[in-house]
Amino acid sequence: MNNSLILTLITLSLLLAGCAESSLVVAKPGASLPGDEVSVYYIDRPRCNFETIAHIRVTGGYFSLESMVSKMRRQAAETGASGLYVLQTQRLETKEFLGTAKAIRCLPA
Questions:
Q1: Residue-wise pLDDT tens digits, 46-79
Q2: Residue 80 Rama label (left phi>0; alpha psi -120 to 50; beta)
Q3: What is the reported pLDDT for 41?
Q4: Does position 106 have pLDDT exceeding 50, yes or no?
Q5: 23: alpha, beta or left, given left = phi > 0 and alpha = psi -120 to 50?
Q6: What is the pTM of this model?
Q7: Is the alpha carbon torsion for 23, 29, 35, 38 positive or negative?
Q8: pLDDT of amino acid 14
Q9: CB 63 within 8 A of CB 95
Q10: Measured distance CA(43)–CA(40) in Å, rounded
Q11: Does residue 1 belong to any structural domain of this protein?
Q12: For residue range 9-44, what is the model confidence (pLDDT) as tens digits?
């Protein structure tokens, strides 16, 4: 199987997982970092050239935006990411939050 087919199958299985937390590594992960060392970017793109290490999707079980982003930061830190680029957050009718983000690593200038 080629890489794009494998990536498509993995993505499809993550979507079908529903309420499971998941992250998909797409680049070589680095050494794990403490979560508080991961910068968070919401609206503005990071000011560096970067590579995406992982796509992070978090669903259910978080009753504040801060707790959800904190979990995403820890997941990004586990991959060695230096930043978390938040792409989407949503508050559900059940008052739970879900979101998607990219775990990123700034590249040398």
A1: 888 999 999 999 887 788 899 999 999 999 999 9
A2: left
A3: 93
A4: yes
A5: beta
A6: 0.71
A7: negative
A8: 44
A9: yes
A10: 10
A11: no
A12: 455 444 434 444 555 666 677 777 777 789 999 988
Residue 84 lies in a domain: yes
Domain total in the chain: 1
With respect to residue 65, please indicate whether it lies within any of the assigned structural domains: yes
Task: For residue 6, tell me if it sits in a domain.
Answer: no
Helix H, strand E, coil C: the string for the chain is CCHHHHHHHHHHHHHHCCCCCEEEECCCCCCCCCHHHCEEECCCCCCCCEEEEEEEEECCCCCCHHHHHHHHHHHHHHCCCCEEEEEEEEECCCCCEEEEEEEEEECCC
How far is residue 61's CA from residue 96's CA, in Å, rounded to a whole number?
6
Residue 89's domain is classified under what CATH number?
3.30.1660.10
